[in-house]
Amino acid sequence: MRDELLTVAIEAAHSAGELLMNSFGGDRADVSTKTSPTDLVSKADRDAERFLLDFLASKRPGDGIFAEEGGRAESSTGYRWVIDPLDGTVNFLFRIPVWAVSLAVEDRDGGVAGVVYDPNRNETFVAQRGEGAWLNDRRLQVSDRADLATALIGTGFAYEVKRRGEQARVAADVLGKARDIRRAGSAALDLCAVACRRLDGFYEAYTEPWDRAAGALIVREAGGVVSEGPAPVGEGTTIFAANATLHDELKRLVLASVQSKGVQ
Fold first, then answer.
1. pLDDT digits (tens, 9 = 90+) for 34-66
2. DSSP string, 206-258
3. Looking at the domain covering 2-139, what would its CATH class be?
4. Inter-helix orientation angle 43-59/2-23, to 10°
């Protein structure tokens, strides 16, 4: 069953990626906002999600759905698909080729299979629970770097101004302790970057389940650790991903920074 689920996920992600590539670089038409003026959604997001919902309904009728742009369905099979049809919408709209299609399928015990497809680089990150993680035909293993001072760390920022400001203050503390910080604009691809050693670690507050479901499984299956902690402002969580040693050091630093600023 897990092989079947992964096969469906790969086919769905590739087909949605092809659909998105057909409109990438075109006119930025039919763009609206969601939670803030900088939280954008486009016709491309909605079209890709509609395609994925129809595809999964034909291939896996009865499975549950939890998708970014509002697709919801209860499960009668014990499986649920967590879908981000276009992770990195702002990059997509500004013609920056850093965005991906992310799909994960879960059961009562968590992630069963996950796919993050980057059509700009023709890179398919996949994982199955207990079976490891892969980039195309290469098996993945997270970095073994144990020293935060020499580690390259990825992060991201929220759309709401107050949250973003507090995240920037935390990032300044991390920047003072790490080799450097990168902010690419796609949490799914950042998690995959940890899995394939392009980043040593990653943390970000206020991600949603569809941002992280597939990427978190890929990191874990590549030998990494993924956990959560409080966000800098109000409700929400911060996700952390790295190897076991670096994960703990990065998490301690970020949570200490949050607490020292009194912005729980």
1. 555 544 457 888 899 999 999 999 999 999 999
2. S--HHHHHHHHHHHHHTT-EEEEEE-SSSS-EEEEEE-HHHHHHHHHHHHHHH
3. alpha beta
4. 150
Contact 122, 13 (CB under 8 A): no
pTM score, whole prediction: 0.93
Torsion of CA 169, 96, 71, 106, to 10 degrees: -70
Q: Write the single-letter amino acid at 88.
A: G
- The neighbour count for residue 36, using CB atoms within 10 Å, is 13
Architecture of domain 148-260: 3-Layer(aba) Sandwich (3.40)
Structure tokens belonging to residue 117: 């497809």
Contacts of 152 (CB under 8 A, 6+ apart): 178, 179, 180, 181, 182, 199, 200, 201
